[in-house]
Structure to design on (235 residues):
């Protein structure tokens, strides 16, 4: 069992550049399943819908998902917006061409208008300006300075707000993710990386301190079941 009083960051299998494409695909599918059962879409949809409704047509409300991975969250958010007849344009970024190709395929299969940008979230060009910049399950991969850099880059590109959804480090969450990752997917990558992600994640106090250092004064951080927190900051 890791020491969860502090961040315990260990290398994650899926982050390795030489990961086998078949294992990578299986892991992305497993993570999408975990995201579905952990309510990731709903916890972002509620604030996004509220922000979009506060900026009605003719303005086209825009959302950028940074380090999107499998893209299952923005794809599901796009579906919700279409069903609710709310005009939101979704775009995504990731440094993995492999992941972005999967996003493009799923978007085409479901007739969802999502724009993709291949770029590094920390070292690439500035993010294109959007009303809201969101990021899910990426912050725990970063050290403190990288997390501050990400928050600053998101804030600079956001016209209205940023939302960050991530794992929260705790004993309860570590055990819940261990069980869920073994029950919901057969991916050996997810079995290893899931608990490691919680062990390497921030707690809410740490995230609040990082947000202040990034200049996100007035940021709100709230617990979101299961195993998550949601940081929201309005410009």
């Amino acid at each position: 069992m890791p020491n969860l009083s502090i961040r315990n960051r260990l290398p994650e299998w899926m982050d390795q550049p030489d990961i086998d494409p078949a294992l990578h695909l299986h892991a992305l599918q497993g993570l999408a399943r975990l995201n579905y059962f952990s309510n990731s879409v709903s916890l972002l949809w509620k604030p996004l819908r509220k922000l979009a409704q506060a900026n009605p047509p003719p303005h086209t409300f825009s959302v950028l998902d940074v380090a999107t991975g499998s893209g299952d969250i923005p794809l599901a958010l796009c579906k919700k917006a279409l069903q609710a007849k709310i005009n939101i344009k979704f775009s995504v970024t990731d440094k993995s061409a492999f992941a972005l190709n999967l996003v493009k395929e799923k978007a085409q299969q479901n007739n969802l208008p999502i724009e993709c940008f291949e770029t590094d979230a920390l070292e690439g060009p500035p993010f294109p300006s959007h009303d809201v910049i969101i990021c899910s399950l990426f912050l725990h991969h970063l050290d403190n300075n990288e997390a501050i850099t990400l928050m600053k880059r998101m804030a600079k590109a956001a016209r209205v707000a940023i939302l960050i959804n991530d794992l929260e480090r705790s004993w309860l969450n570590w055990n819940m993710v261990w069980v869920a990752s073994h029950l919901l997917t057969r991916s050996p990558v997810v079995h290893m990386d899931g608990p490691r992600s919680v062990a390497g994640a921030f707690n809410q106090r740490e995230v609040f301190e990082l947000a202040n250092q990034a200049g996100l004064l007035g940021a709100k951080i709230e617990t979101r079941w299961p195993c998550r927190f949601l940081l929201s900051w309005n410009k």
Notes: The longest helix spans residues 21-37. The radius of gyration is 17 Å. The chain has a mean pLDDT of 95. The chain is about 45% helix and 20% strand.
